Amino acid sequence: MAGKPINPTLKMALELGPIILFFVGYLKFRDQSFLIGGTAYDGFILVTAAFVPLIALSSFILWRLTGHLSKMQIATVVLVTVFGGLSVWLNDDRFFKMKPTMIYLLFGGVLGFGLLRGQSYLKFVMEEALALRNEGWMILTKRLTAFFIGLAVLNEVIWRTQSTDTWVYFKTFGLTAAVFLFFMTQAGVLSRYAIEEEGEDAA
Predict the structure, then answer these.
(1) Beta-carbon neighbour count of residue 38 at 10 Å?
(2) Where does the chain cross the membrane (predicted)?
(3) What is the CA radius of gyration of the chain?
(4) Which residues of the chain carry a pLDDT beneath 70?
C-alpha cells in the first residue's frame, strides 16, 4: 500500500523537520545545563527529550495524511523512542548516539536475511516505486545491505572517537548525504534492469 498522495514539500517537512529542529536545538543549548528535579541535564539530553515526541508526532501526522507508514519509518520511530528514552532516563547521551547503529544494523540484517533465503525484501518495500527485473533487485539489495552495515560501523567509529559536535553534524548532514549519494550512484543498475512499460515496448 503506497498511501494517499500528499504535497511533496509537506512530506519532506514532516520527514526532515524533526532532524533539522534537533540540529538547531542542539546548537542553541549545547553549552547549557538544566537542573530538573535535582538532576543536571546538558543541552544534548534536553534536545533529545524534545526530539523523541517530535518525531513521533510528525510520523503520526504523516500517517493521518497518507494512511500509510513504511516498515522502515515505523522501525525508526520505535528505535528513536527506545534509545532516546534511555538517554533521557539514564542521563547518558551514548544510548541516543547508538541509535543510528541499531537502525542500520536492523535494516541491513533484515535485507541480509532475505538474501540468504534468495529473496529481495527491498523489492517488497519499493516495488511500487521502482519497476526492476529480479536480477536488478538482487544487485541493489546486496549493495544496500553492505551500505547499511558500513553506515552502522561508521556511526560507531564517529561517536566513540569524535566529539559530540562532530557526531551531530555527521548525523544531520553526513548520513543524509550518504544515503542520497548511494542511490545516485545506483543509476546504472536502475536503468540496466528497468522493466519497460508496455507502451514503450510497442514503440
Answers:
(1) 5
(2) 12-29, 41-62, 74-90, 102-122, 143-161, 167-184
(3) 19
(4) 1-3, 128, 197-203
pLDDT for residue 7:
83
Residue 120 forms part of a structural domain: yes
Residues 6+ apart with CB under 8 A from 189: 132, 136, 139, 140, 143
Interval 78-114: pLDDT, tens: 999 999 999 999 999 999 999 999 999 999 999 999 9
Residues 82 and 103 in one domain: no
C-alpha cell, 54: 517530535
Predicted TM-score (pTM) of the model is 0.84
Gap between the Cα atoms of 160 and 117, Å rounded:
34
Claim to verify: residue 4 and residue 36 sit in the same structural domain: yes
CA–CA gap between residue 47 and residue 32 (Å, rounded): 11
